[in-house]
Design brief:
Length: about 150
Amino acid sequence: MKKLLILSLFLMLTSWGNAQTKDLMKTVRKTIEASNAIYADLANKNDGSILTRYTDDACLFPPNAAPVCGRDNILGFFKNGPKVHVKFTIQNLYGDGKTSVTEESYYEMTDLEGKKLDDGKVIVIWKNTTDGWKMHRDMFSSNHPAK
């Protein structure tokens, strides 16, 4: 009887902990979705505001290129980039929802008139900082062969 009581208590606590984690991940997901929604607009400004999405020691891992690490290098990467709209669709989030989360997403990129330019996949490691959730590692690649 004592074992059954302990097992029941353990299962109840596990269930409660899982519910707490799910609620936390829903909140984190909303934060990431909001950040992703304004990402292209920030990149298009060419004024450095894109850096507000990244940690101070962030790195980009673009396709067919070396890693781009540090604020100045990331700013340089975006500064002369094309003006585009990007829509991200989160497929999965992994992590504890407290200190870090890994985002697995798809993207679709169009020009400013809406003509599709590219689509691909993204893996982002998000870090919870004193300023909120920031991208720490950002890796992306096209679903199409390099041109």
